[in-house]
């Protein structure tokens, strides 16, 4: 009995010492600042922060869990917008608000976590360093913690910084794909041959052999694109802003064959393990391309491909595959809007 009393007294003294040290030596809340730079224009960066629908697609706090459920409330962007979330697997929930907005300059968020009445307040400031670079500054004010919970302040800043690092990587992928799509749309000039240098690209997709009779090939492309899109968005949880336009890779002159072999894929930023054997990764090496944009019936692309091949032969260039980039998603019984790129070399 005396042994248990001694243990009890020891535990009380230990808890008391811990509480006293937390009370006198650890602040009840924590303030810190984190700065980052990103190589995209201020307006495009700010629009990813003041729309909570955009924000939750790349912020690691929300993307790191596949079980989180988010509800959005009007207005959907700017001051007054808000969300609520619940993650049953991780047993967390909360609410987030945009309390203040100075367009293209600053935002103030409030985050209430797990029924905590005191919010985490985050002021985010934006500054254009150039036409293509933006500085982002987070000023974080954490809620007051009880004496026994103040130890959490020792790792709060590190945890927040880690979340920002992962979020910035996601944001770069989102903006990269968005800017690439915007640039491609702005550069479209139909039925004219241009020369482009294409960087390395990673595709996740399917290897296919299909009949080239009548509309059979295009119907096969539409079917396989839908498979890839559904796998990427539903199984992998990717959003449309996280990947680029679908690309079909095939031999340049096989349009006259009875059967066509091709690889159809969606550009992603990095490779990872794929559990479905129907899908695989393919890396497109950097290449110089003769390019032509085409809009119309899929069968009509043959004339554009022939023009690219004739151009290559006239310039005494050798050529490899042709890449068909669908600017608009392939849909059955509809015209295509595509970029045809013939890889050429001496």
From TrEMBL:
<dbReference type="InterPro" id="IPR013538">
    <property type="entry name" value="ASHA1/2-like_C"/>
</dbReference>
<comment type="similarity">
    <text>Belongs to the AHA1 family.</text>
</comment>
<dbReference type="InterPro" id="IPR023393">
    <property type="entry name" value="START-like_dom_sf"/>
</dbReference>
<feature type="domain" description="Activator of Hsp90 ATPase homologue 1/2-like C-terminal">
    <location>
        <begin position="39"/>
        <end position="175"/>
    </location>
</feature>
<dbReference type="Pfam" id="PF08327">
    <property type="entry name" value="AHSA1"/>
</dbReference>
<protein>
    <recommendedName>
        <fullName>Activator of Hsp90 ATPase homologue 1/2-like C-terminal domain-containing protein</fullName>
    </recommendedName>
</protein>
């Amino acid at each position: 009995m005396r042994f248990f009393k001694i243990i009890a007294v020891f535990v009380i003294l230990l808890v008391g010492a811990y509480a006293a040290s937390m009370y006198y030596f650890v602040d009840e809340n924590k303030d810190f600042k984190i700065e980052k730079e990103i190589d995209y224009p201020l307006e495009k960066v700010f629009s990813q922060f003041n729309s909570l629908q955009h924000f939750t697609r790349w912020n690691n706090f929300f993307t790191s869990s596949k079980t989180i459920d988010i509800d959005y409330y009007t207005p959907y962007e700017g001051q007054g917008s808000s969300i609520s979330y619940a993650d049953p697997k991780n047993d967390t929930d909360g609410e987030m608000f945009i309390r203040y907005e100075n367009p293209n300059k600053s935002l103030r968020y409030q985050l209430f976590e797990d029924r905590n009445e005191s919010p985490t307040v985050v002021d985010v400031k934006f500054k254009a360093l150039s036409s293509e670079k933006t500085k982002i500054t987070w000023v974080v004010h954490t809620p007051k913690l009880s004496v026994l919970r103040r130890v959490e302040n020792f790792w709060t800043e590190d945890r927040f910084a880690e979340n920002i690092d992962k979020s910035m990587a996601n944001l770069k992928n989102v903006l990269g794909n968005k800017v690439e799509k915007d640039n491609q749309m702005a550069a479209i000039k139909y039925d004219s041959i241009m020369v482009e240098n294409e960087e390395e690209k990673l595709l996740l997709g399917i290897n296919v052999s299909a009949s080239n009779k009548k509309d059979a090939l295009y119907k096969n492309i539409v079917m396989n694109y839908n498979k890839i899109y559904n796998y990427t968005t539903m199984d992998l949880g990717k959003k449309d802003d996280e990947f680029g336009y679908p690309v079909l890779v095939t031999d340049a002159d096989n349009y006259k064959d009875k059967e066509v072999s091709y690889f159809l894929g969606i550009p992603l930023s990095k490779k990872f393990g794929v559990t479905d054997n129907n899908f695989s990764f393919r890396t497109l090496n950097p290449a110089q391309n003769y390019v032509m944009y085409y809009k119309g019936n899929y069968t009509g692309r043959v004339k554009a491909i022939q023009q690219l091949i004739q151009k290559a032969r006239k310039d005494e260039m050798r050529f490899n595959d042709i890449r068909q980039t669908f600017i608009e998603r392939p849909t059955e019984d509809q015209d295509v809007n595509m970029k045809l790129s013939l890889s050429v070399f001496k």
